[in-house]
Amino acid sequence: MKKKNVDLSGLSKDYLIKVKNLSKQSKVEGAGIAGDALQEPVPSFISCVNDNLIKGANNTWIVLGRDRPASRLSGYGGKGDTQTGTIDIVVGRMGHEPKDGVFVDPNFETDAARIYISQKTDVDENFKLAAGTIGSSVSLSAIGMKADSIRVIGRQGIKLVTGVDQTNSQGGKISSIQGIELIAGNDSEDIQPVPKGDNLSESLEQLCDNIEAISGIISTFLTSQMDFNATAAIHYHYSPFYGIPTTPSSILVEKGIEVSMKHLNDCMIGLQKFKLKINLYRNNYLRIHGEKYINSRFNKVN
User: Fold this and answer.
1) What is the side-by-side order of every strand in the sheet holding 140-146?
2) Are strands 85-91 and 113-121 parallel, antiparallel or unpaired?
3) What is the DSSP string of 121-151?
4) Closest CA to 111 of 70, 150, 77
């Protein structure tokens, strides 16, 4: 359900009465049009003593402090760890139901949008993310972003790169390269590797070649079988009476013709159609000009 464009339900009753009694001119001046001041419900943030808090108008915040995903006791900042410097950029605390006069902690679930930059944090736990095969990041530097929609836009390309250093931000040795995982629905139960397009195309080409080879073997077999059937259909014996050849069996001749026609119509023509379909498949899926070419013309993975 879409919210109303103007929702003042989170303001105090006293203020709502005050707004109701304002003159029409005053209401227009306080409507926030063209960047004018706009009164709307904004909760109060429970800050720490050491926070450098930048509070903007209309529920916008930048908190420069230490790792803190929830209450002041949360995160590595709440434990008193060093090297936990954090910048928390937030808009829309309390999400779609902000209220005046309410004191709130950071809420990674309900706050409308956030960019969280921390020197040391548990980013996957903070944002309740599936571990995937990479696993969860624990006690490491991280950047987490959350909003209804996120767009990363590059005018000249975008690279997602891992494994560039030998040690992490805590001085630990990085012993293995971790990849990039795309997890829809925050469910990694059925997560699978991304195939390499060129290798996949090559393997399917070889598979098509093998299928065509089998088709050729069947075609050769049918040709030989048809020759044999034709010979068998007119097969005759020599009579014990003066060695005179007997006439071929009428039933065998009739059946031989019938089988040969079936082989020709059902098998040989069917094999030709099958080979044509293989070529159409190749052109459609395995050729770069194909309408349903299986590889992306733009995006690459390793």
Assistant:
1) 52-56, 60-66, 85-91, 113-121, 140-146
2) antiparallel
3) E-HHHHTT---TTT----SEEEEEEE-S---
4) 70
| pLDDT tens, position by position, 257-283 | 566 666 666 677 777 888 899 999 999
Q: Helical H runs in the chain?
A: 13-20, 24-29, 75-78, 123-126, 197-233, 250-262, 269-281
Tokens at residue 56, please?
């903007």
Q: What are the residue ranges of helices labelled H in 123-240? A: 123-126, 197-233
Backbone angles phi, psi at 144, to 5 degrees: -115, 140
Q: What backbone phi and psi angles, to 5 degrees, belong to 186?
A: 55, 35
Structure tokens at 152: 């990363």
Distance separating alpha carbons of residues 180 and 134, to the nearest angstrom: 8
Q: What is the pLDDT of residues 101-155, one digit of tens each?
A: 899 999 999 999 999 999 999 999 999 999 999 999 999 999 999 999 999 999 9
170, 120 Cβ separation under 8 angstroms:
yes
Q: What's the rounded Cα separation, in Å, for the pair 289 and 19? A: 64
Neighbour count for residue 92 (Cβ, 10 Å)? 20
Q: What are phi and psi of 282, to 5 degrees?
A: -60, -50
Q: Find, among 114, 91, 94, 116, the residue nearest to 103 by Cα.
A: 94
- Asked if 110 and 95 touch (Cβ cutoff 8 Å), the reply is yes
